[in-house]
Design brief:
hydrolase; DNA repair; alpha/beta; Endonuclease, Chain A; about 40% helix; endonuclease; 6 helices; endonuclease activity
């Protein structure tokens, strides 16, 4: 399959992709802040540099893009047809790094939540009403919108 844009345009598009302060992340931050939760952002001395850290609850939250972090069975977790081997390796490495970070954080006594971009796209924050209870609760690890408790 041939790319629909030229290399220069594709390069510009890819360089514009943010790693921090993404739309889904900002939506979650506004939701939590409005409900009185305080957090630190992108804490560099924790494995994986979690997007949000709520020290009071020993909780790290990662806001994952479905494409970049390979959200299982998600329509947004596609693999590009061009340069397929490169993308498969890159995206698999991302997923493996996420898993290592999650396990390291848990070994350090942190709880870890993954909030996926697709869930935030659908909800526009409305269906996050389950989240405060989980933050305050004892759930060690979950993935949403799958709402799968892990580990």
């Amino acid at each position: 399959m041939v790319d629909v844009v030229d290399k220069k345009t594709r390069s510009r598009m890819m360089s514009g992709i943010q790693g921090k302060n993404t739309g889904p992340e900002m939506l979650l931050r506004h939701y939590l802040h409005a409900r009185g939760f305080r957090y630190r952002l992108h804490v560099a001395n924790l494995p994986g540099k979690p997007d949000l850290v709520l020290p009071k609850y020993r909780l790290c939250i990662f806001v994952h893009g479905c494409f970049w972090h390979r959200h299982p069975e998600c329509r947004y977790a596609t693999t590009p047809a061009t340069n397929r081997d490169f993308w498969l390796k890159k995206l698999t490495d991302n997923r493996e790094r996420d898993e290592r970070s999650r396990l390291q954080l848990q070994e350090l006594g942190w709880r870890v939540f993954e909030i996926w971009e697709c869930g935030l796209r659908k909800s526009a924050g409305a269906s996050l009403d389950w989240l405060p209870e989980q933050i305050i609760g004892e759930c060690e690890s979950l993935s949403w919108p799958d709402y799968v408790q892990k580990g």
